[in-house]
TrEMBL record:
Catalytic activity reported: Hydrolysis of terminal non-reducing N-acetyl-D-hexosamine residues in N-acetyl-beta-D-hexosaminides
Record keywords: Glycosidase, Hydrolase, Signal
Database matches in InterPro entries: Beta_hexosaminidase_sua/sub, CBM2/CBM3_carb-bd_dom_sf, CBM2_carb-bd_dom_sf, CHB/HEX_N_dom, CHB_C_dom, GH, Glyco_hydro_20_cat, Hex-like_dom2
Organism superkingdom: Bacteria
Signal peptide as annotated in the record: 1-20
The protein, known as: beta-N-acetylhexosaminidase
Upper classification of the organism: Bacteria, Pseudomonadati, Pseudomonadota, Gammaproteobacteria, Alteromonadales
Amino acid sequence: MDRILAVLLPTMVMVSPVSANTGLENINQQQLNQLADTLDVKYRLLSNMPEQCPGSNAEFCYHAQIEITSPFTANVDGWKILYSQVYPATQSRSKQLTLSHFNGDLNHIAPSSDFTGFKAGKSQVIEFWVASSLLNEGELMPNYILTAQGLAPKVIKSTQSYIEPDTGLEIKPYAAVSAKSSVMQSHPDDHYAKYTSAALFDKYDIEGYTLDSVQHAIVPTPEAMEVFKRDTPLSLSKGIKLHLTGLEYGDIAAALQRLDSLGVKQTHNGIAVNITVSGKPQGHAGAYQLSTRKGKIQINAQDSAGAFYGLQSVASLLSLDTMQVAAVKVEDKPRYDYRGLHLDVARNFRSKEFVLRLLSKMSAYKLNKLHFHLADDEGWRIEIPDLPELTALSSHRCVDLDDKHCLQPQLGSAINTGRDGYYSVADYQEILNFAKQHHIEIIPSLDMPGHSRAAVKAMEKRFYTLTKEGEHDAARQYLVSDPQDATEYRSIQHYNDNTLNVCMESTYAFVDKVITEVAAQHKKAGSPLNIYHIGADETAGAWVESPACKRFIADKSNDVHDVEELTGYFIERVAAMIAEKGIEVAGWNDGLSETRQDKMPHKVASYVWATLPQNAHKVVSAHARRGWDIILATPDVTYLDFPYELDPKESGYKWGARRTNSQTIFEFMPDNLPANAEVKKDTIGRHYVADDRTQVDKHGKFTHQPLPEGFRVAGIQGHLWSEVIRKDHLAEYMLFPRLLALAEKAWHRAKWEVPYNYAGEKYDHTTSFLTAQMREQREQQWQDFIHAVGHKELEKFDRLGVFYRIPNVVSKVINGRLHASTIIPGLPIQYRLNDGKWQEYLEPLQLTSGTVVKLRALSPDRRRPGRIEVADLTGKARL
């Protein structure tokens, strides 16, 4: 339940018991309830390219307004509306309302001294400018909260989102973001305004493709496959019968469970499945050989993981309509040892059941690492029994702005509808055990020293509680903030209190305690903590006025001379602490860049999240030359919380990429980052240059060198950050089906990819290292991959209840007829004329003047439709 807002921080304006506005009365509980139930709130985008960006020097800004309308007259004062907005306004304007930023993404609207009350049917409007662009509804958070001092707060009904029954998608009735190019274009040079439906139709055209390869397709693509078209396919309709050599049943039980769920049972008279594990150390971990010829299935593997993956390939070969697998011989091994997914459960919580389902789906496509982001500013999600405040306070949010009982409301989280919670010790044990059965390693992450507000507030609660009880030493034992710190700063997510104080010994006692407890939970589950991700990113201006840090820097024995060196010092010290426990250190590249190589452990994993146009290749090279392992986390390819397409109804952040679909991921060349400049574009669709040649400054010092000879990255991972994802099934929507393309890049090295030039090279859209022949090979393999997804894998998703994204229908008028398609082939398409009945699209439609045509795709089982698109009958293709 939401708590009564009783105490506000000093930065909030206190409301007087008597209204300052003449003729108005202070709002009472009944009036507050009535207004919350009846106010109509609209968040309306006015322009993404206003003439000016007041209060900011940003290149981008948008102009918007919030309109509040009451159906009845209410001459009341003393209220506030709390709401979440990703980026604070740089300036606002209103006759009767004020807009202020509070903390994080929390803002508030309040009556000004000129407020004359709500008049029936007359809108109160506040307009504002934000240093960003607003291109889809994903950033517009729900659940505006009407509050007043001493009264129970209540969510304004018109700002609540709901799930549309047919599509299962989130609808935001308060959001008014138009699809018109006048508002969807964010910059005069924004090339994405050219991505019309007709242009995408041309891009996704699949004329002349035959379905021959679908029957023997495996996702992800094996290293080598021989197809025996003359051999009779194996029918698994009567089940399978196992014969195991060199492995235990439990090693492959999870893969057998997947086959069982797809209708392939273990029976006495089933097709023989012979699995042999050699156990020899030579070769590649996870490698296997598979044969489905001569009336049996034979899998030979070096280890149990390889045997597991061989069975997953059998499941991928399976066609559900015939229950057959094609006759093939496969030689296969993974491209990278690290094939991962980052899951953020801190911002918005994901249920244990979701995590278990996700692990099962990851293993089906041979992903083997779950980077588990368990704590951030907005929540702490793992139980540490000796520090109960971490979950008692910081695992949930409510309307308590001083964080005494919970964390402040953030990300539109006023009502706890599955967005908050934590994993108990028993829950985490179950997750670890389940992951082990699926040959997946859990890599926990509790972000530090920035992104740590949940930890800061929990330990402050512990400090005040124990101090009140007279236990002063215990109170300070794990304190991670300096009570005397007067530093004013704002993090990248606009918090002013989210950073651990790295100058206090109690902070390191806290870090050590947490890591020790997490490692113990892993050990108990029989899954040793081999690698721990400390975060180590985005600390912004903290500690400057901290007395503890001033004393620390003044102490010459600390080898820290300036506040700017403190982040690096913290990472070095925590890294040493982790390494002493026999655990590999991992972190984001920006924080790791601030460390001194000689102060870091020998074994370090750097997760590089710079974008391709922002010279990700230079970061990779710099860290590779430190001898570190590199995990690619390039946002413009791997962030699966970005929108699939350029559609204002799609959800997702867009700071790193405006569109990230299966094809944009499939076309990525991870072993040669600079070469992607030939085909990739920046966030507004412009070409860019990637110069990987040796570069020196005027003093002769290297500013960039190509990768060391023979160096290859250790792996790649997808990312699902959860700021705008409020439901488990919507998290699946953001992940699937494009996670399959990520798995493809992690497992399979395509022959069409441009080899890396260790001597250095310069790439842009005019160079042709990706030759015409290689592009033709890429297109053919893309069609093979996406047809396998559309004709086989989505049917399996339907069978297993996966809520994947059904693509939008694209269309184009050709010779007076409307042609329709989707990026994923094989899906049923329906059309509706002038809001009539839905009909099957079987051939191009003959158009008549004035007709409005609506289109939608269906899931293969026809039980779920995708988003409705209104066909553009102009037929213009501008891509």
